[in-house]
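HUMAN: Can I see a protein plus its fold?

ASSISTANT:
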Amino acid sequence: MATGTKPIAHGKKATKQITMVILVLLVVQFYLGMFENLLVGVPSNALPVNATVSEALTYSILNGGLVLTLHVVDAFLLMAVSFILMVLMLRNERWNKILSILGFVFILIAAINGIRFVMSNFSINGISYGMAGAFMGALVVYIILIYRIGKVS
């Protein structure tokens, strides 16, 4: 954006609503993940050793139970909606653009770690920790972003 150019504010309401949707999806994702991990649990031999990404996704969606399936569906929704927001923000104020890109990257990192965790037969807690860390990063970024969108004049 050129110096002295005002940020695009005509989509302020839409971008704020999309950011709120992302925040709600993140909260839902957290509760589904915690419920699955702490209350439902999964067998430690659900997948073959060296399972592929497609095997992990297939298991998670078709054989992992309702909570894990909803967790995966929510992850896909988060990736899609955060990507849409990132594209909408590309012509916005510099910091809003950076925050939307960073939020999308955090969501991708969490999703990749989620797939890796399933591929490990839910046994490598460090991967789960990485998923949680990326979730927290996304949550903080989108909270800051929604505050900044409200300040755009």
The mean pLDDT is 87.
